[in-house]
Amino acid sequence: MGRFTKVSEDAFDAMQLEAGVILSDFDPTNPVEPDSEDIIAVTTGGIAVACEAEYEDYGADVDNVPNSMMEFKRITGWNCTMGFSDLKFNAANTKLELGAADITNGTGYKKIVPRRDLKLTDFTDAIW
Known about the structure:
Layout: H1 11-14, E1 21-23, E2 39-57, E3 73-86, H2 91-98, E4 101-105, E5 110-114
Antiparallel strand pairs: 1-2, 2-3, 4-5
């Protein structure tokens, strides 16, 4: 056991103690139980979230400037990912996981066709 065993005062407010859920609609200012149609994913095994900044180094071409100096770096974007195992398998979730796809209704089946071009309808909110 370590020498210090203190926990921050807000630690328990930030812990996820119940099941993780991915929602399409949620208002954090008025948290209420989500409607069934707002639940995108039923998760198992935890949720891993990672965000990595993308930088541009304005000093890279400047003579006598060391590489990667803080003063010359600017954040140009973020690459964020969320990973989890989803127990809910349906056409809408498969389309969401593919990123860009179309769903066609057949007689007794749904056909999911991936595509390369993005449409505005391919983008959606996902709230953890």
